Structure formats: structure tokens, C-alpha cells
Amino acid sequence: MTSHLFRAVAAALAMAACTAVAFAQAPAYPAKPVRIVVPYPAGGTTDIIARLAAAQLSERLRQPFVVENRAGASGAIGSVAVAQAAADGYTLVMGTASSHGINSALQKNLPYDAVKDFAPVTVVASTPNIIVVHPSVPARTLGELLALAKARPGQINFGSTSPGGSPHMSAELLKMMAGVDMTHVPYKGASPMLTDLMGGQIQAGFDNLPSTIAFVRSGKLRALAVTTAQRWPGAADIPTVAESVPGYEVSGWFGLLAPAGTPKAVLDTLQTAVAQAVRDPEVTRQLRNLGAEPVASRPEVFAQQIRADVDKWRGVVKATGVTLE
After folding, report:
1. What residue range is the signal peptide (predicted)?
2. Which helix (H) or strand (E) covers residue 160, if one does?
3. 111-160 pLDDT tens trace
């Protein structure tokens, strides 16, 4: 009995020792470079915020976080690439209200499920969309632009950064609620849209505030309204759409997501690092100068936000009848 007991105890101790050694040898996350896929072109708001987040994560987690732009299909191409990647935390996506909210409502054959195929990490920042016009347009307020659109049905051309994106859907919601007819001109990204708007090829534009506010401040574009329910910090001189169209509200967000099944410890490591970053006064200053507000929500809160956005935009698509062009 004693001999058998001794051997059993020895075997148990040996197994425990091997487990401890294996655990000690397991590399801490991250142990190699991490890729952040931006499912939109370089130079837009998503890209700007992703590169700021990547720099902060690289500094805090001591591994390179590398941004890769994989644009197309209103964020679907880059997003599905991440959904299909290994669930190990080394491939992330900087998702948006478009890629992980509107797409689920608007694209019938979307190759991913925004809720089931991703593990939300955190919302990095939120921002309003903004309505801007070329300085030659005889409208200095949103009310004047809507009056002009009613007087000239279909003759006001407005650009957006992608068909089915948050700026485009902001416009469609405004058209429905204000009862106006304006013609949508879709672009592949903020840069070409803003170039044409400043060149006078289109009269109005809907965009995320961060990629547009510099042109407003320089006088190259005139801001008429932001889409959030309240005026935005740092741009408090710009009215809200709701001041002219009561009940209107659209908010944009930019958040990191991993493939579904990514270990919770990895998600927590990333969320903690982002939370530390946005508490840094210099990072907060940079985001607010862009027109964005730092968030750093917990993964479970972010997951609830995605589900709510999917439900909201399904209702808007059904009410407006909008389809992808």
C-alpha cells in the first residue's frame, strides 16, 4: 500500500511539475507582431484612428501592431478576412458602425455575421458624421440646404465615402425624415469624395467628422450640421441635425474586434492597453483634435452595442427602402 501510494504521489507531482514548466514556457500575448486590418482606404477616419491605436498598442504591449488596408464592399472584404483568421489575437479588425452594423441590414449576402463571427474587444473612439457643402452653395444652414433641396428635387448631388456606409445612411435617414430628394454620388473613401467636393463637382458631402474637420477649419468647406443628438465637444459651433429635424441621431464608432473564439485573456489584454492609452492626456488630446471622443468600452458592452446597431439599421433600411447602388 505504501509503495503504491508513493508511486501515485510521485506521478502526480511529476505531472504537476510538467504542467508548471509548460505553462511557464507558454509565450505571453503578444509574442509576435499583430495585424490590424482596416477595411477601408488609407486616409479616412477609420485608418487615422487605427494608426493611432496601433502606435499606442505597440508602445504598451512591446510588439509591433501593423495596420493593413483591405478596402471594398463597405468594409466587408477586410472584415470577412479577419472573421476567417485564426482566433489567436494576431489578426484584428478596426470595425465601424458601417462594417458591423449597417452591412448586416443592407447586404443580403454578407459573408460574415457581425455578431457571431467576431469577439468584440473595445470601442476605441466615437464620432459624429458631418454634413458639409462647397462654399459656393447658397445655404449657410441645414434648414437652408433642405429648403434648396425641396425647391430643386434631385438636383442637389451629395457624396459619401462608400455606398451603404455610415455617412451614406446618415443622408438616407435625413432624406426620409426631412422629406427631401437629393442624389447620392458614392465614392471609394473620404479622400476622393472630399477632393470632388472641394473642386465643386458635387454640392454636398456626408463624412465622418475627423477626416473633414480640417477642411472646415481652413474654410475650404462649410459645415452645416453634425449627426449626434448633442453638439460635439471641440466643434460646438456646429449645430446638430436634430436642431432642424427633431429626433434625428446617428453616431459613428470605431472599435477593435478579433475572430470569434479568441481567448478572453487576449481580449482583456488588448482592452486594458487601449483603456490605458485613452486615459493618457496626450492621446485624448489627439483624438479630440481629430473630432473623436475616446471610449475604451469593455468587450461585453461593445457586444451589446453591435447588436443594438444591427437592429437599428435593419429598421432604417426597411423604412427607407434603400439598396446598394
Report:
1. 1-24
2. strand 157-160
3. 999 999 999 999 999 999 999 999 999 999 999 999 999 999 999 999 99
Residue 265 has pLDDT above 70, yes or no: yes
Span 40-86, pLDDT tens digits: 988 888 999 999 999 999 999 999 999 999 998 889 999 999 999 99
Q: What percent of the chain has pLDDT over 90?
A: 74
The model's pLDDT over 167-190, given as tens digits with 9 standing for 90+, comes to: 999 999 999 999 999 999 999 888
Query: Cβ(238)–Cβ(231) under 8 Å?
Result: yes
121 within 8 A of 256, measured Cβ to Cβ: yes
Show the cell assigned to 105. 441590414
**215: CB partners within 8 A, 6+ apart:** 132, 194, 198, 221
Report the length, in residues, of the chain: 325
Residue owning grid cell 478576412: 81
Q: Is the dihedral of CA 55, 56, 58, 59 positive or negative?
A: positive
Phi, psi angles (nearest 5°) of residue 208: -70, 145
Question: Chain-centre distance of CA 93, in angstroms?
Answer: 10
Average pLDDT over residues 203-207: 96
**Is-contact 274 53, C-beta < 8 A?**
yes
pTM of the prediction? Answer: 0.79
Helix axes 264-279, 45-61, angle to 10 degrees: 100
